[in-house]
Fold this protein.
Amino acid sequence: MTVTSTAPAALEAAQARLLPAFQRVAPALARSLRGRSRVAKTIFNWLQLGARLPQVSMRPVEVNGEPGALFVDDQERLLAVWSIAIADGQITAIRSIVNPDKLAHLGPVGDFAALITSSH
């Protein structure tokens, strides 16, 4: 996975938000972030982390009618789902779900927390 620093340009909406599905069993944000700089920095950091985990890949998909991404491990187990809300051609929100309980209905789920811990 290649990560570039152009993330802020993709988040043109001044009120861009990063919305976690409040989760206790996997690494997640404690609260939502607002503002394109904060959101872009967090997304960029997450993508950099993912780039350091060679066993993680990202696949573009449609999530509930919105563009999104699935993150899977090298055994094809689901680690995370992102959906991206777009209005008037601008990203207005990114929703991130990493809770294995909320992902289980989609198929086999991997252990994202263990991958992160093992990479340090």
